[in-house]
Design brief:
By secondary structure, the protein is mainly alpha-helical. It has five domains: about 120 residues, P-loop containing nucleotide triphosphate hydrolases (Rossmann fold), CATH 3.40.50.300; about 90 residues, no CATH class; about 80 residues, Orthogonal Bundle (Arc Repressor Mutant, subunit A), CATH 1.10.10; about 200 residues, Serine Threonine Protein Phosphatase 5, Tetratricopeptide repeat; about 100 residues, no CATH class. Helix content is about 65%, strand content about 5%. A five-stranded parallel sheet has the order 2-3-4-1-5, with helices on both faces. The longest helix has 22 residues. The two termini are about 55 Å apart. The C terminus is likely disordered. Keywords: Kinase, Serine/threonine-protein kinase, Transferase. This is Non-specific serine/threonine protein kinase.
Length: about 675
Amino acid sequence: MVTVTGVGGVGKTRVALEAARDLEHGFHDGAWAVPLSGLRDGSLVGHAIARALRVVDQTARPQLDVLADHLSGKRLLLVLDTCEHLRDACAGVAEVLLRAAPGLHLLATSRQALGVSGERVLKLAPLETADPEAAPADTVARPPAVTLFEERAASATGGFAVGDDNWRTVARLCRRLEGLPLALELAAGQLRRLSLEQLSDRLDDRFEMLVDGTADMSKDVSRHDALRTTVGWSHELCTRQERLLWARLSVFAGDFDQRAVEHVCGDGVLPADRVSVTLAGLVDKSILSRVGDGEGVRYRLLDTLREYGSKWLGELGEQQKFRGRHRDWYLSLVQQCELEWFGADQKEIFKRLLREHANVSAALDYCLTTPGQAQTGLLMAGALCFYWVGCGFLAEGRYWLDRALALDTDPTRARAKALWVNGYIAIKQGDTDAATALLEAGRAEALRTGDPIAAANAVHRLGCVALVTDDHATAATLFKDALAAYDSLGELNTSVIMARAEYAMTVAFQGDLPFAVELCEAVRAICEERGERWVRAYALYVLAFAAWTEGRVQDATVLARKCVDISRTFHDLVCAVLGIELLALFHAAGGRPRDAAALQGAAEQIWRTVGLPLFGSAYFNAPHCEGEALARRALGDEAYRQFFVQGTELDLDQAVAFAMGERPGFLPLAEASDRRR
């Protein structure tokens, strides 16, 4: 492990990422960067690493255990960027992962060492500067500080160049700024409105205030003053509204869009209709970086500049006010997405929440760390049910819901919903005992608070528990009760049609295939009318199962592939792996036992990231058992095992592509035999 340390603005992130790019070819499993600056809760460091590595794990296992298993056999470089505010958490994660994975190399950036056993610390020095009194250096021999300033100044002005006429001024300015990259970039950005001489003179004036106090200071303190002075001076050059917006933007985590800024930061002092021009001014002054274009434009504050803005916001006494407004905006966004999830925009909603993941997490953290706000945290975490369950965030959803439920125990409708949502997550993870307890508590809370919708949802999910534990009579009764309650309440949404699809699974397992098909065709019709896709995938699974049972193999294959295709759109591993299990059976029965064995191996690997394989259900497991028996009979046990192991080595994208027929499979046995002859 190597930790790159240094003062703010010295370029730790840039150096680490460039090093990772240069070294990537030497690591069989690549180099991966994990940005941590937007993370406020150290407990989520493991989740951030998992997202960066695209490790999708929806089990109830601790995230560090999941990561340790994933990394144990890999040779990989992992960059943990900006660790100082989560130092203890990052150190703990590093210790665990380095012990578990001998082939793991960690490169961290932090303002101080993490204190991990075996850690080597690389203290990053600022860029080399030039002696202003020396003769001008040619382009090749110029010190890096001068080169960087020239590049950024040229970008800002469209034509700046260092020559004999301005060499001394540039060299003096770079030395004055201690060669700190961020300070140089901020200063260069001011050349849009100042001449080089004006820039130098104004910086000299600012530094004169520090002269008396710097003689005995360490280099790091001096450099900190150089950056602080440059940032402070850049702040002074901003208009009043730009300074105000800079401070208010510090409440965002990661990047953000203009609409969010208008709602969070706009008020009588900074009207929303002035936000666009004020953002442009901050971009022009190099305070904000702009990412994307057109409707996808987003903005980001560098960490050092965010810290400055946050400090300024605190001095204005408005930190809590604007963190609260940030929370309110993202709560309204989540609630809007929840309402619109039952419709044609599911894919866009999923993408939007992925973009806003850091800000949603920051809003939840605000709720659960601010006195009196836990009730809103329950409300927000519960409203994200579709995201946690449908989009591959079971473990993170359960983390937030567990925290919120532990903090706020007063009987409320928000608590009733949070309980059944958490219970639903537990079912998907195969944790049926916990699910039953949560759902029973949720039903009791709903009855106590007079919330019939929450009560119906709890009954519905208790039906799911009965379904996956093979108690089909109880499941059918509970699903019918829940559907009757939904109908009496006039409910028609994702939960309602999912209950119908799950009821269809139940009656299919009971042997009433015509009724199961009738239920699922009705669900599919509603989905097509509304443009709903997530529940449609589950209905397609049941229809594929029914088609196979009725001997319509081609129809079953088409339906199962559609199921898998939709599920991968939302990262819903449960539905995807159920579809893959069916396709493995179809391959085995269709003379492709090698593909069947490999698909079963891939499915086994995916189940490890979800929870209990096939929920421990004999009925969900039946297609797997039948496919395995057919494949073993055709291949023999040893060959089956070999192809099964090959399947376990596929990552999620490869496994899905294989199941979808998007990557070559193995030859059918007869054709392979002909080729050998």
